[in-house]
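Protocol step 4 of 6: structure prediction from sequence.
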Amino acid sequence: MYETTLDLINRLDIDDLLAAILKRACSLLGTEHGLLYLINDQKDELSLHLGTGYIKTILGLP
């Protein structure tokens, strides 16, 4: 977690930050495939925001 914090602390772009978090989480879990969902403002729906590995090919699909 310390290394992750050091890597993330200087990132100002939210999409860059989220991509780095997803990449690090996948690394810690020993996989190259992952998804990141974000909740909408009404807090009633999740939407797929980022993907990595083969899962990246489904981004944008309903």
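Step 5 (inspection) to follow. The mean pLDDT is 80.
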